[in-house]
């Protein structure tokens, strides 16, 4: 009996999947609180190591660093593209963030959902770190997104719980 229990315990340990490689780049999947995958990014995202480094929120002495955070209790599985200074769109999912490194000055960041584009302006000097948030609410009859109006300290706290899906230098 003891041998059988030991064998079962050993086999259970073998059935546990290995932890993800923290240096690997792979698509990011948004999951329900029960672990069911609902949507995945179409391209690989920065590694878990890069995610941890980004969450230090260290200033870059040569750039204005801007975090665009998408984290809200009512957000759904929708893809929302974020555009820095009119550049190419970067797809986001709920509980994700993007880190942009801009030249010092004023910059426009827009997002688009269902053909509607909304933008905000961020300005700063080299070494500054800024936070903005896309606030999404999804109901069975309607989804809406807008720029959140809340203090950067609160957005920073949300960023700690979000996954880095893009790390972009815009020059």
Rg, Å, rounded: 19 Å
Low-confidence parts? none
- DSSP, total strands: 11
Task: Specify the helix fraction band.
Answer: 10-25%
Calculate the terminal CA-CA distance, rounded to whole Å: 67 Å
Basic shape: globular
* N-to-C SSE string, H for helix and E for strand: HEEHEEEEEEEEHE
Number of helices: 3
Widest β-sheet, arrangement of strands: 10-9-3-6-11
Percent of residues in beta strands? Answer: 35-45%
What does this molecule look like?
This protein has 171 residues and is an alpha+beta fold. 17% of the residues lie in helices and 41% in strands. It has 3 helices and 11 strands. The chain has helices at 2-15, 48-54, 152-159; strands spanning 29-31, 37-40, 64-70, 80-84, 90-92, 96-102, 105-113, 116-124, 129-138, 143-147, 163-170. A hairpin with a 5-residue loop joins strand 1 (29-31) and strand 2.
How do the helices and strands line up, and which of them pair or pack?
Elements: H1 2-15, E1 29-31, E2 37-40, H2 48-54, E3 64-70, E4 80-84, E5 90-92, E6 96-102, E7 105-113, E8 116-124, E9 129-138, E10 143-147, H3 152-159, E11 163-170
Parallel strand pairs: 3-9, 6-11
Antiparallel strand pairs: 1-2, 3-6, 4-5, 4-7, 7-8, 9-10
Describe the structure concisely.
The protein is of the alpha+beta class and 171 residues long. It contains 3 helices and 11 strands. The protein has a 5-stranded mixed β-sheet, covered by helices on one side. Strands 5-4-7-8 form a 4-stranded antiparallel β-sheet, with no helix packed on it.
List keywords for this structure.
171 residues; globular; 4-stranded antiparallel beta sheet; 3 helices; single chain; 5-stranded mixed beta sheet; alpha+beta
């Amino acid at each position: 009996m003891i041998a059988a229990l030991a064998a079962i315990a050993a086999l259970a340990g073998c059935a546990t999947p290995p932890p993800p490689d923290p240096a690997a780049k792979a698509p990011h999947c948004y999951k329900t609180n029960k672990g069911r995958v609902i949507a995945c990014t179409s391209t690989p995202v920065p590694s878990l190591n890069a995610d941890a480094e980004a969450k230090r929120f260290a200033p870059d002495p040569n750039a204005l660093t801007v975090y665009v955070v998408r984290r809200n209790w009512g957000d759904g599985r929708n893809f929302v593209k974020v555009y820095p200074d009119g550049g190419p769109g970067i797809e986001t999912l709920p509980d994700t963030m993007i880190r942009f490194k801009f030249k010092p000055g004023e910059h426009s960041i827009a997002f688009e959902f269902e053909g509607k584009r909304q933008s905000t302006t961020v300005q700063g000097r080299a070494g500054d770190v800024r936070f903005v948030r896309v606030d999404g609410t999804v109901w069975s009859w309607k989804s809406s997104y807008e720029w959140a109006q809340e203090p950067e300290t609160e957005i920073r706290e949300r960023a700690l719980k979000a996954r880095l899906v893009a790390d972009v230098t815009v020059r």
